[in-house]
Amino acid sequence: MNAPAAHHPIRGILYLMGALALFALLDTVSKTLAARHPVAVVVWGRYFAHFLITLVVFLPRYGTSLFKSARPGLQLVRGLTLVGTTGAVVAAFQHMPLAEVTALVFVTPFLVTILAVSFLGEKMPAWRWIPVIVGFSGVLLIARPSGNAFNIGVVFVLLGAVCYAVYQVLTRKLSAVDRSVTQLSYTALIGAATMCVLVPRYWVPGALDLRDWLLTGSLGVLAASGHLLMIMALRAAPATTLSPFTYAQLVWATLLGWLVFGDFPDGLSLAGMGIIVASGVVVAYSERFGKSG
């Protein structure tokens, strides 16, 4: 069993920033593939490649102890919530732009804060709700839902946000009893096993060309690396500290949406980015120099 998670907020924030950049790349590749292939095929590729990478990198070192968990049942639930998140978000990509999907996912920090305070016993001074809410207003400025945005894609995103909030809280809870590599391995195993059961009904032989196979393989690399950094971030700092900084993924998504899909951010989007960054700096400053419970 690991020692209780230590609090190193700056280290946790840096790990989180790396994870979010990788997740934005993961979403970009997923959206590209989802435009040509069923959701189940894309999600299967993401988890199967992730599982293979995990086995190659970690199994020689850890052996079967790689999957030794103090809470295997909770690891199963955690893995299934991430599969649900991935499937819902990839489905949303088939109906909505990258930045808009990413913006709507950012109901997640609110849910994480509520769950972390309620179930993990983390402290959240009342005043710290202010920068979180201000940060969310910046999200709305960057990706303003248009009148036709409220379609099935929105439902998929909100379902994904609920799953992702539970996943983050369970990751924090399990960080106190399981190694990071064990959490990463369970995520890959559960995702791959689940999708291997579901994907045959959607598989079309020969549908993936060489380029698509390479993109599919990259999903595993990006996912494995990103989630390892996320686990390390949640081990280093409380979820309530990290939550405001998850907005940085929207900055990455907006930039990638511009570069890959031609969505150039306008003035209001840039203003939203500034608001998000400012709210994150306020929370980081208070964490670094101390605050009362």
Short overview:
The protein has 293 residues and is mostly helical. Helix content is 74%, strand content 0%.
Topology:
Blueprint: H1 9-34, H2 39-62, H3 72-93, H4 98-105, H5 108-120, H6 129-142, H7 152-174, H8 180-198, H9 210-236, H10 239-242, H11 248-261, H12 267-289
Helix pairs in contact: 1-9, 1-11, 2-3, 2-8, 2-9, 3-7, 3-8, 4-7, 4-11, 5-7, 6-12, 8-9
The count of β-strands is: 0
Distance between the termini: 28 Å
What is the typical, i.e. mean, pLDDT? 82
* Proportion of residues in β-strands: under 5%
Oligomer: single chain
Protein architecture, described:
The protein is built from twelve helices and no strands. The protein is mainly α and 293 residues long. It is globular, with a radius of gyration of 19 Å. The two termini are 28 Å apart. It has one domain. The chain has helices at residues 9-34, 39-62, 72-93, 98-105, 108-120, 129-142, 152-174, 180-198, 210-236, 239-242, 248-261, 267-289.
